Amino acid sequence: MHGSGIRQEIIDRVMARRGRLHLFDTLEPAKTALAVIDMQNTFLRPGAPVEVPMGRAIVANINRLTARLRERGVKVIWVTHANSSVDGKSDWSGFFDYFVAAEVRRKTIEGLEPGAEGQKIWPELTVGAADIRMFKNRYSALIAGSSALERVLRSHGVETLLIAGTKTNVCCEATGRDAMMLDFKVVMVADCCAALSDEEHRATLETFIQQFGDVMSADEVLGALDNR
Question: 8-83+118-226 sits in which CATH class?
Answer without folding.
Answer: alpha beta
